[in-house]
What does this fold into?
Amino acid sequence: MKGAVAAGHSKTAEAAAEVLRAGGNAFDAAIAGFFVSCVCEPALASLAGGGFLLAMDNSGRAKVFDFFTHTPRKKPVDHAVDFYPVTVDFGSAQQEFHIGLGSCATPGAVSGVCAVHSSLGRLPMTELVQPALELARNGINVEPFQAYLLKLLTPIYMTESVLPLFRSPERDQQLIGPGDLFTNPKMADVLEVLAIEGKDLFYRGEIAEQIARLCSASGYLSYEDLASYTTIIRDPLSVRYRGHSFLTNPPPSAGGILIAFGLGLLEGVELKELGVGTYGHVKTLTEVLRNTSNARIKHFAEGPHEGLLDRDLLQAYRQQVYQRTAAFRGTTHISVVDAQKNVATMTVSNGEGCGEIIPGTGIMLNNMLGEEDLNPSGFHQWKPNERMSSMMSPSILMDGSGAITALGSGGSNRIRTALLQVVSNIADFKLDLESAVANPRIHIETDVLNIEADGLSAGTVEQLASDFPEHRIFNQHNMFFGGVHLVHADAKGGIVCAGDPRRSGVGLVVN
It folds into this structure.
């Protein structure tokens, strides 16, 4: 057995699996999967986005590659900024996003995958870009989930800059739909050159110059922003939970520290005795999630920090849990483990995209400066030249036997709640991977309880709805609750994986 892959698209997973078959390691596979996701999951991933990769080699050394977006070095005051709202209709709710060139932060994705490759890769980059290059040039039939995402984001993809790339070949002035052939030959050209020239193409070469020219009249980014961008390598945040070691994305990102805080609250409750999916179990989760949100608001005034895990602070919040016990976002994830137990877990995002394609590249720029939850002080209030915080939390869970589970999720604010619940399903209830992922989830946002009812008893749903007058019930699995894709290697060499059905996830074991 050569490893396993879990990802959000069949072609993403297949590309990573093929790299493992060709002798590449988990890090090579994740890189190849990322490039393919930029072609096949264009509403979620982009070469002009950002993300994080948590890497652990077979000696147990772990490090986080932080290649998330960075705020511009300066705020120009001599021109108007292209920054405007669009409304996206999700059926049950509407949400406002901000796009335009003024919403674009410095991209980090290309820098990140190049840093991972130079540090940990085995195969040449020319081989790793090949699956994506071929798909971009020859085309791919659009999967229903990807077509659904593009339809949701119609106001962004119907802009003058973007529509020519995503226009349906059969229906004029409409976006590509399920089964349509999607090609991106200009991106194929970029990948071909990138494999030879490396990150300089994007940060000091022709593409950097294109981005700077595009933003010069109505955006924030300059050539200097791109030329000065660097991937930051950090030690992962490490905490203990129920005899397991949990490694995740550290501050300045918020997601990992909030998951760790939630696990700290759960530690004092014997969830196993309550029973999975019971009212007592789910009610406990609601209080943990609500108190985690409250702690974030109260203690993150100066940004995420490990002081949130202070023992006395945790105990004070635990007491509130015990006393009570009885936003769609463009993010995707890939997890890989190879036969040598190297582990790569990577989450990437382009926001929703800013509605502008870099000329001649087929690459959509991000809209991270237009993301409300990434700009808590308000739009245009960001501090210059600073790595942005994120909820993205690629993670690793290890038990005492030597078993390793690599996991992560898309879903903006739902990332932390999805991962918390999956980790608890594994550590507290010993559920198999597919059950741990498929189990119904909840999420709390500003005291509104969102409930996946499928899998919960009618009585439990009724009691939760009574506890939370403001609630939304989803009768089936829904992408709102994230997309947790994970792989698992046990101490005896067995390897399994699971993709989240909420986001069309795919798991492949590679023989």
In short: The longest strand covers residues 331-338. The radius of gyration is 22 Å. Residues 30-233+342-374 form one domain. The first helix runs from residue 10 to 21.
